[in-house]
Design goal:
Elements: H1 2-33, H2 37-72, H3 74-77, H4 81-109, H5 116-122, H6 125-139
Helix pairs in contact: 1-2, 1-4, 1-5, 2-4, 4-6
Length: 143
């Protein structure tokens, strides 16, 4: 029963993390398109609150709850190749998370760091990782 509670909260944390990873780069798009100081300051504030108040706590909860589930079911999970692949993808998502944090700070110093087109493409990265993670968790392919 404990495993089901952990899994439920893990899924909630993953949803929150992905929601933030989808929204933060979109804020970057609007940030780099802004020309007035008030808008730029507003986007800096929104980005900081999203990254520090939602995205990072959701990432931490995702990792803690996920590793807790692996620990509780270690005999099963640690032998599954789909789980190894999933953990690799979650590692890549974590790298993406910290790259978002880098861009958040870099945009404060230089609002013209990258173009809005760059951030529109950057915004697409987590969707491909999400698709792969969901397929691995649901299908559990043997390879």
């Amino acid at each position: 029963m404990l495993l089901l509670w952990i899994k439920a909260f893990h899924i909630v944390a993953v949803i929150c993390w992905f929601a933030a990873m989808f929204y933060l780069p979109r804020l970057f798009v609007y940030h780099v398109q802004s020309t007035d100081a008030v808008s730029i300051q507003r986007f800096e504030l929104m980005e900081r609150k999203l990254y520090r108040g939602i995205m990072t706590p959701a990432m931490i909860a995702t990792w803690v709850l996920g590793l807790w589930m692996v620990w509780l079911g270690s005999d099963y999970y640690l032998t599954q190749h789909w789980m190894h692949a999933k953990l690799g993808l979650v590692f890549l998502l974590t790298v993406y998370h910290f790259v978002c944090g880098y861009f958040r700070k870099a945009l404060i110093a230089n609002p013209n760091l990258k173009s809005h087109v760059y951030f529109r493409w950057f915004n697409e990265v987590p969707i491909f990782l999400l698709i792969a993670v969901v397929i691995l968790v649901v299908v559990k392919p043997n390879f």
